[in-house]
Amino acid sequence: MESRLETLRWLSEEYHDLNGTQYDMVEEAPTPLEFSRLVHIARPVLIKESAVPEADDPEKWSKKWLSDMMKDREISVAVTPNGRADAVTRGPDNKIYFAEPYTDKMTMQSFLDTLSSGEQDSRAGTGGEVHYLQSQNGNMFSATYYDMSGNEDPSEFEPLRDFVPSEIPWCSEALEKSPDAVNLWIGDEKSVTSIHSDPYENIYTVIRGAKHFTLLPPTEGWCLQERRYPHATYSRSSASSELELTPSAPSTPLVRWSSVADPTAPGALPAEAHPIHITVRAGETLYLPAGWWHYVRQEGFTVAVNYWYDMEGRGMSWVWLNFLRGTEEPPLGNEEPDSGGAAVGSQ
Question: Where do the TM regions start and end (predicted)?
Answer without folding.
Answer: none
